[in-house]
Amino acid sequence: MPRLAKLLRVQTPADRGPGQPWRPGTPPPAPVDPDTPGADIRIGYARCSTLGQELDSQLDALAKHGVPREKVFSEKISTRIRVRPHFEAALAAAREIKAHAPHCRVILTCTR
Question: Locate the Resolvase/invertase-type recombinase catalytic domain: which residues (predicted)?
């Protein structure tokens, strides 16, 4: 399967992202040399909704999945609040990494 995954890389324009409409005439990105080593870059996100809850179990689970602690964005915020600053920061970091390393996959990992 890993061999098949390398063959299935689909090039997408850098300005494409979730929730963005497709615009005709958008140039495709430059092709990536198949011999370029690719690596998965993992970013983590952990959240709990009350001050009494602890993030430790989620941080441990993310560490087991290969997400280093310095790449985990975490916050204690209610589920009723729609704007989550640390989640938005995680998405922004993923986009920035992808812009600088287009040949690598950026994986945002959440425990729940």
Answer: 41-112
Q: What distance in Å separates the CA atoms of residue 103 and residue 44, rounded to the nearest whole number?
A: 20
CATH of the domain at 77: 3.40.50.1390
C-alpha 22, offset from chain centre: 21
Q: Is the pTM of this model over 0.85?
A: no
pLDDT score for 3: 61
Distance CA 43, CA 93 (A): 8
- The Cα–Cα gap between 67 and 44 comes to 6
How many domains does the chain contain in total? 1
Q: Which residues of the chain have pLDDT under 50?
A: none
Contact present, 70 and 93 (Cβ < 8 Å): no
**All residues at 6 or more sequence positions from 63 whose CB lies less than 8 Å from its CB, including other chains:** 69
Residue 46 falls in which region: left (phi positive, over 0), alpha (psi -120 to 50) or beta: beta
Residue 64 maps to a domain: yes
